[in-house]
Automatic annotation (TrEMBL), chain A:
It comes from the Bacteria. The keyword Membrane applies. GO terms for molecular function: phosphate transmembrane transporter activity. One of its GO terms (cellular component) is plasma membrane. Pfam families: BPD_transp_1. GO terms for biological process: phosphate ion transmembrane transport. The chain crosses the membrane at residues 12-38, 62-87, 108-127, 133-151, 180-201, 246-269. This is Phosphate transport system permease protein PstA. It is a multi-pass membrane protein. Gene3D superfamilies: MetI-like. It is found in: Cell inner membrane; Cell membrane. Belongs to the binding-protein-dependent transport system permease family. CysTW subfamily.
TrEMBL record, chain B:
CDD domains: TM_PBP2. This is Phosphate transport system permease protein. It comes from the Bacteria. It holds the Pfam family BPD_transp_1.
C-alpha cells in the first residue's frame, strides 16, 4: 500500500468509526426515549392528575415537587443574583471575587447526595423527621451556584459604555445596576434561571431523606412532603406491577416538563439573537 | 441605600463560601466518631457492619480464634434484606460476649469504606472508558463529518438529552439495559458493569455537547489551511483540531468524570447495593452515593458516622478533582 492509499484508508476507517460511535450513542439515547414514551403512555390517564398516590394517582407528587422546586428557586434567586452582581460589578478582578467564582464553579459539580447529607444533619436531625423545608434548602443550595454563574456571565456581556453612561448621569451605582445593567441582561438571566429551575426540578438524591415523600396531599412544609422523584424511585422498585407502571408515568411527565422548560429556554435565547 | 445594596451583594457572594465551609465542617463533625474510631485505615477496610473483638491493647482478635467456642452461634453470618451482614445473636453468643468482656475483651463494630470507594472508582472508570470514545465520535461527527442539515437537529437532541433527569436513566437501566447486558455478558442484571455502562450512557450527551463546543472553537482558517495542503479529514482532526481544542476536550471529560463519580440515581437501581467487592465486573457491589442513598435514613451511631465519613471523602475528592482541573486547564489555556 503506498502512502496515499494508506492515508485514504486511515481516513475511511476514521470516518466509519466516528459515524459508527455517533450512531451507537444515538441508538442508546433513542432507546431510552422510546422506552420512556411507550412505558409512560401505557399508564397515562387523566385520573393520575386528579388523585393522590394513596389512590394510585400522582396529583400530590406533582404538586409537592413543584412547590419544593419553586420555593427553592425563590430562596436561591435573590442570594445567587446578588452574589453574581457583586462578582461582576463590585468585586470584579479582585482576588476574593476570583476565589468565590472558582468555588461557585466547583460547587456546581458537587455531588447532590452529599448536599442532602449536609442538610439532613442541620435541618432534619434537629426536627426529628423529614420535612419540606429541608428539601427546599437542599435544592436551593444546588441551584445557588448555577444562578451565581448565570448572573455573573450575563452581566459580563453588558458593554462598559452603558455603565459609564449611567455614571455620567450621576445615578447611584445600585440604580445603574438595577435599572440599566439588569434590564439589559434580562433575557439572558431569565433563560439561565429557567434552565437552573429545570435542573433542580428533576433532582432526586438531595430529597431522599430531606423532604422524603408522602402518599397524601399536604401543604404543611413542616411535615414529610410529597416528592415526585423520590416516589418514582420507590415505585420503580415496588413489587406490584401497577406501581411500577405509575412510576413510568411519573417519569414521563417529569421528562416532558423538563424538556419543555429547556425548549422554552432555547427559544428565548434564539429570539434574542 | 447604595451602601446597603453593596453590603447585601457582598454578603450574598460570601454566602457561597459560607455554604461550602459549612458543608465541609458539618460533614467532618458528623464523621468525627468514625474518623476517631477507624482513622485513615477506613478507606482500606473492606468490612461493613462486622463485629470484632478487641483485646486490652486495642488489637483485634482474629475472628476464628475469638469465636472458636461458639462457631455455630455467633460465627454464622446472615444477610439481611439490604445485604448487610448481620450477627446472629443467640443467647449462647451473648453469654460468650459477656464472658469475654470480663477478660478485658470488648466488641467493636467495624465499618470500612473500601467496598463503596472501589465501587465508585471502578464504575466511574467503566463509564469513562465507554463514554469517551462515543462522545468524541458524536462531537467530531457533529462538527466535521455530518451534513449541515443534520448538525442542528442532532446537536439540539443531544443537548436536550443531557437535561433528562438521571433517575430516568436509572429506570431504563434497571428494566431494559441491565437484562440486556446480562444476556450478553452473563451474570446478574444488577452489577458493576451495568452501573458503569448506565453512567456512561448518562454522561455521553453532556460530554459530547461540551466537546463539540470546544471543537467548534477551532478557527476555520487553520482547518482550511490544512485541507489546502492536501490533508485528509482524519489528519485535520488528529493534527489540527484535537491539539487546538485539547484543553476544552479534557475539561469536558473531567467535568463528566466528576458527574459520574457523584451520581446517585442512575446507579442506585443497577449496582445492586451489596457491601461486597466485585470479583467479576458482572457482580453486584455498591458505590459511595448509593451507600448514602440506601442506608442513610435507617443508620445511627457509628454506622451513620461512617456514612458521613464516606460523604466527606466523596465531597473532598470531587472538590479536588474539579478544582485541580480548573487550575490546571486554566493555566494551560493561558500559555
Amino acid at each position: 500500500m503506498n502512502l496515499q492509499n494508506r492515508r485514504l484508508f486511515y481516513n475511511r476507517v476514521f470516518s466509519v468509526l466516528s459515524i459508527g460511535t455517533a450512531l451507537l450513542g444515538l441508538i442508546f439515547l433513542g432507546w431510552i426515549i422510546v422506552t420512556l414514551v411507550i412505558k409512560g403512555t401505557e399508564a397515562m390517564s387523566l385520573d393520575l392528575f386528579t388523585t393522590d398516590l394513596i389512590n394510585n394517582g400522582l396529583r400530590n407528587l406533582l404538586w409537592g415537587q413543584f412547590v419544593l422546586s419553586i420555593l427553592a428557586t425563590v430562596l436561591a434567586i435573590p442570594i445567587g443574583m446578588l452574589a453574581g452582581i457583586w462578582l461582576q460589578e463590585y468585586g470584579n478582578h479582585t482576588k476574593f471575587a476570583t476565589f468565590i467564582r472558582d468555588l461557585s464553579d466547583v460547587m456546581m459539580s458537587a455531588p447532590s447526595i452529599v448536599i442532602g447529607t449536609f442538610v439532613y444533619a442541620i435541618l432534619v436531625v434537629p426536627v426529628g423527621h423529614a420535612n419540606g423545608w429541608a428539601g427546599i434548602v437542599a435544592l436551593a443550595i444546588l441551584m445557588l451556584p448555577i444562578v451565581v454563574r448565570t448572573t455573573d456571565d450575563m452581566l459580563g456581556l453588558i458593554p462598559r459604555e452603558l455603565r459609564e453612561a449611567g455614571v455620567a448621569l450621576g445615578i447611584p451605582k445600585y440604580r445603574i445596576i438595577l435599572d440599566i445593567i439588569i434590564r439589559g441582561a434580562k433575557v439572558g438571566i431569565m433563560t439561565g434561571l429557567l434552565l437552573a429551575f429545570a435542573r433542580i426540578v428533576g433532582e432526586t438524591a438531595p430529597l431522599l431523606y430531606t423532604s422524603g415523600t408522602s402518599q397524601y396531599w399536604t401543604t404543611n412544609l413542616n411535615e414529610t412532603f410529597p416528592s415526585l422523584t423520590v416516589s418514582i424511585y420507590n415505585l420503580a422498585t415496588h413489587p406490584q406491577e401497577e406501581m411500577v407502571k405509575l412510576g413510568w408515568a411519573g417519569a414521563l411527565i417529569l421528562a416532558v416538563f423538563v424538556l419543555a422548560l429547556n425548549i422554552i429556554g432555547r427559544y428565548l435565547v434564539r429570539k434574542k439573537h | 441605600m447604595e451602601k446597603i445594596f453593596s453590603r447585601l451583594s457582598w454578603f450574598s457572594a460570601t454566602t457561597v463560601l459560607l455554604v461550602l465551609l459549612a458543608t465541609l465542617y458539618v460533614l467532618y463533625v458528623q464523621a468525627k466518631p468514625a474518623i476517631d474510631a477507624y482513622g485513615w485505615k477506613f478507606i482500606l477496610d473492606p468490612r461493613w457492619g462486622v463485629e470484632v473483638a478487641i483485646d486490652e491493647q486495642g488489637r483485634e482478635i482474629p475472628r476464628d480464634e475469638f469465636f472458636h467456642t461458639e462457631e455455630n452461634a455467633a460465627g454464622s453470618m446472615v444477610l439481611d434484606e439490604d445485604g448487610i451482614p448481620m450477627e446472629d445473636e443467640t443467647e449462647t453468643g451473648q453469654a460468650d460476649l459477656e464472658r469475654n468482656a470480663e477478660a478485658g475483651v470488648t466488641i467493636k463494630e467495624i465499618y470500612g469504606g473500601l467496598v463503596p470507594i472501589v465501587g465508585s472508582v471502578l464504575s466511574t472508570l467503566i463509564a469513562m472508558a465507554f463514554s469517551i470514545p462515543i462522545a468524541m465520535g458524536i462531537a467530531v461527527f457533529l462538527s466535521e463529518i455530518s451534513i449541515e442539515a443534520l448538525k442542528t437537529p442532532v446537536g439540539v437532541a443531544i443537548e436536550l438529552l443531557a437535561a433528562i433527569p438521571s433517575i430516568i436513566y436509572g429506570m431504563w437501566g434497571l428494566f431494559f439495559f441491565g437484562p440486556f447486558i446480562a444476556s450478553i455478558f452473563g451474570g446478574s442484571s444488577v452489577s458493576l458493569l451495568v452501573a458503569g455502562l448506565v453512567l456512561g450512557v448518562m454522561v455521553i450527551p453532556f460530554m459530547a455537547a461540551l466537546s463539540r463546543d470546544a471543537i467548534n472553537t477551532t478557527p476555520d482558517v487553520l482547518k482550511e489551511s490544512a485541507y489546502a495542503v492536501g490533508a485528509t479529514r482524519f489528519e485535520v482532526v488528529k493534527d489540527i483540531i484535537f491539539p487546538y481544542a485539547k484543553t476544552g476536550i479534557l475539561g469536558s471529560i473531567i467535568i463528566s468524570l466528576g458527574r459520574a463519580l457523584g451520581e446517585t440515581m442512575a446507579v442506585a437501581f443497577v449496582i445492586g447495593g451489596v457491601y461486597q467487592l466485585a470479583e467479576h465486573v458482572t457482580d453486584p457491589t455498591i458505590s459511595i452515593p448509593v451507600a448514602l442513598a440506601n442506608n442513610f435514613a435507617e443508620s445511627s451511631g457509628l454506622s451513620l458516622a461512617a456514612l458521613y465519613y464516606l460523604a466527606f471523602i466523596l465531597f473532598v475528592v470531587s472538590f479536588v478533582i474539579i478544582f485541580l482541573a480548573k487550575e490546571f486547564l486554566l493555566r494551560r489555556a493561558k500559555v
